[in-house]
Design a protein that fits this description.
The chain has 7 helices and no strands. The protein is mostly helical and about 170 residues long. The chain starts with 12 loop residues before the first helix and ends with a helix.
């Protein structure tokens, strides 16, 4: 069995499994998982011992810009696939919005703190967070899903972007 996709599970069995564990559909089961993932993602990005906003932002980027071999890569690809269904699936849309929103809020909070304490130059924390999340989500498509060998380029790109945010940079 492909453990990431469950591809050898017979059609209909996924719905039966979802029903057996207390959900009316597999979409509801996925939505419940996404609800938990949103809280976990926010905690992962904000529960950082580092006091320096620059170090926290770099650590957050390390977590968001995953590589094909990273243990979180499968989850990032799965979320990317679910995002493609969101316009047509109300059950998944809201939990996906919460997941992306939790990530945006965590990033914006780090950036806002950095602007306030003088670590970062005057930038719009929400717009900056949105740009970083969009870049991270996009990198999942071509770097992780397609396994294009551009990891070093992506790392240099987001690192240079963070450098450009520095007040003294």
């Amino acid at each position: 069995m492909d453990e990431e996709t469950g591809d050898d599970v017979p059609p209909g069995a996924k719905a039966e499994i979802a029903e057996a564990v207390g959900y009316d559909s597999k979409d509801e089961m996925i939505a419940a998982f996404l609800d938990g993932a949103a809280a976990a993602q926010a905690a992962e990005l904000t529960d950082d011992d580092r006091e320096d906003p620059e170090a926290r932002l770099r650590a957050a980027c390390e977590r968001l810009f995953v590589a094909p071999g990273d243990e979180r890569a499968g989850l990032h690809v799965a979320v990317m696939e679910l995002l493609s269904h969101a316009p047509y699936n109300e059950t998944l849309r809201q939990p996906l919005r919460q997941l992306e929103g939790a990530t945006l809020d965590a990033l914006a909070g780090i950036i806002r703190e950095g602007v306030e304490d003088g670590t970062f130059r005057e930038v719009d924390p929400d717009a900056t967070a949105a740009f970083l999340l969009a870049a991270a989500d996009g990198s999942t498509g071509f770097h992780v899903a397609l396994e294009m060998d551009i990891g070093a380029d992506i790392r240099r790109g987001w690192s240079a972007y963070v450098d450009s945010l520095l007040a003294d940079g």
